[in-house]
Each structure stands twice: as C-alpha cells, then as structure tokens.
Amino acid sequence: MLRRLATAALLAIALVSSALAADAKTHHVAIQVDQNDPQVMNLALSNATNVIEYYRGKNEDVDIDIVAYGPGLHMLRVDTSPVKDRLKRLKDMIFPGKIQLSACNNTRLGMEKAEGHAVALVPEAALVPSGVVHLMELQEQGWSYIRP
After folding, report:
1. Is 5 part of any domain?
2. Has residue 116 been placed in a domain?
3. Is residue 4 domain-resident?
4. Distance of alpha carbon 53 from alpha carbon 144, whole angstroms
5. Taking Cα atoms as reference points, which of 111, 50, 51 lies closest to residue 75?
6. Which three-class secondary structure string do you get for 104-120?
7. 122: domain range?
8. CA distance 121 to 74
9. 10-residue block means of pLDDT along the chain (148 residues)?
10. Pick from 104, 96, 111: which is nearest to 136 by CA?
C-alpha cells in the first residue's frame, strides 16, 4: 500500500513538473539600433546580455533580435563596426542561438550607392529587406521593443 502511494506521488510530481515546463513562456525582445554611436551599440549589446542572463537565472527562454538600420547599420559592417569582436563573442560563444542580428538591406543598398562599393556585413548578421518593417512585424507578433 505504501509503495503504491509513493509511486502515485512520484507520478503526480512528474506530471506537474512536465505541465509547468510545457507552460514555460519564451520571451521575445527586439532591440533597435539606428545610430552610428559606439555607446548606443554597446548599450544595446549590454541590454541583450542582461536580458538573457536574467531569464537564464529563472530557467526561462528568451530570443533577442537586434535590428540595425540607417546609421546604426555601421554596427554590423565589417569595415566600420566598433563592436564586431563583441558581436562575435556574444553570438557564437556566450549566447549561441539566442541573439539574431538583423541588418537592413534598404540601408545597405543606400550605403553602397553613396560609397560606390559593396558593403560587407559581419558573418553573424542576417539581411532583412527593411529594418523598420522587420521591427513592425516583430511587434505585431508580440515581441517587446527596446530602443537604447
């Protein structure tokens, strides 16, 4: 009898634990970078780091998309980024799979036209057609929005 009670209790604990795990929410944060300012870029990266560490401490998931457009695209350019080493560390080593770096293709094309040459982006960046539209769509999907 005691053995059956113990088995039932263990099964109940397992069911409750799996139900709680299934209810775990994944948080989503979009961070806008639209200034060619190393302080703003570093603040955006610090915000991302702090958010990830906060939710990691709570055993909750978070996805972060840093969206760079306009003058902020310099953050993701190979030739002008003041934070490219930090980007690589954060994206590949410290928080793999947690940070998306979205680069505005409209801005890239405008820069290429103005400068007369191709603009290379850091390998960690992914092109989106329009940074502003990408931010709008993320917000429409329920993502939180931060502008450092």
Report:
1. no
2. yes
3. no
4. 17
5. 111
6. EHHHHHHHHHHHCCCCC
7. 26-146
8. 9
9. 49 46 79 98 96 92 96 98 93 80 98 98 97 98 96
10. 104
Task: Give the CATH number for residue 118.
Answer: 3.40.1260.10
Residue 30 near residue 143, CB atoms below 8 Å: yes
Does residue 142 sit within a domain? yes
pTM here? 0.82
Nearest 10 degrees: CA dihedral of 125, 127, 130, 132? -20
Residue from 62, 55, 74, 70 nearest 30 by CA: 62
Place of tokens 């890239």: 108
CB 57, CB 50: distance < 8 Å: no
CA torsion sign for 52, 53, 55, 59 is positive
What is the layout of strands, in order, in the sheet containing 125-128? 125-128, 99-104, 61-68, 26-33, 144-146
Q: Answer for the pair 125, 101: CB distance below 8 angstroms, yes or no.
A: yes
- How many structural domains is the chain composed of? 1
